Amino acid sequence: MESPLHHFELHPLVHINILGLDLSINKAILAMWAGMAVVFFLFKAAGKRDSSLVPGKLQSVLEIGMEFIRGMVEEFIGKEEGKKYFPFIATVFFFVLACNLIGLVPGSYTITSQLVVTGAFAICIFIMTLFIGFAKHGGHFLSILVPPGVPKIMVPLMVPIEIISMVARPISLSVRLFANMTAGHTVLAVLFGLAMSASLVIGWMPFGFTVIINGLEIAIAFIQAYIFTTLTCVYIGDVINLH
Asked: pLDDT tier at 127 (50, 70, 90 boundaries)?
């Protein structure tokens, strides 16, 4: 039986090397392109019914999703400030969700099971929050390192703790998504391998569990996209409101 981690290995499909820079195309890149294409064409298809008074099923589902995200943005960032960041938050949610679900298609690849990918997402969001904080508050943004009500004598102790807490945010954000997607796919790979290697008499047991776990993975794909988006809203809201 192959290693359950075999699914996460990447091999170049198209070798591209420009000035010593490896730009080869592999399954992860194709999966990322597929995720962007799915989101784009879903909204493109839903937008074709703009002239209709009665929205189609796809448009209704997407509108429910957008309203759900809008409520999340208004709750954690604020109604007025949230308008600026709503397009970005919605893009993050649908892109992460699409990539999570695409990874469940046999023969595809789950890019969110790669720590370097989720880490890049998290670091970009963290840097963006710093820019937002300094752009809105200037030097006063550093007051976020001193929680309100802390005695002055405790400030030298609290500042390093708050810095560590902020630096840990992108680590927590990236590892949470990576670990959940990796764990689920590893379990699926093990169970499917057992089903393929077992006899017909007992092979149905791990195969049955594979079907059940696959259903759970669909739910986890939605939950992890929701958590990733919620934490992004929380981090942006914190630097805007200095909580």
From this structure: very high
Higher pLDDT, 48 or 145: 145
Give the DSSP per-residue string, the chain: ---TTGGG----SB--EETTEE--B-HHHHHHHHHHHHHHHHHHHHHTTTT-SS--HHHHHHHHHHHHHHHHHHHHT-HHHHHHHHHHHHHHHHHHHHHHHHTTSTT---GGG-HHHHHHHHHHHHHHHHHHHHHHHGGGGGGGGS-TT--GGGHHHHHHHHHHHHHHHHHHHHHHHHHHHHHHHHHHHHHHHHHHHS-TTTTHHHHHHHHHHHHHHHHHHHHHHHHHHHHHHHHHHHHHHT-
Number of domains the chain is built from:
1
Radius of gyration of the chain, Cα coordinates, nearest whole angstrom: 22
Distance CA 158, CA 116 (A): 31
203: in domain: yes
% of residues, the chain, pLDDT over 70: 82
Q: Which amino acid is at 202?
A: I
* d(C-alpha 171, C-alpha 153), whole Å: 30
Q: Which residue segment(s) compose the domain that 195 sits in?
A: 6-241
- Tell me if 105 is assigned to some domain: yes
Question: Is residue 52 predicted with pLDDT exceeding 80?
Answer: no
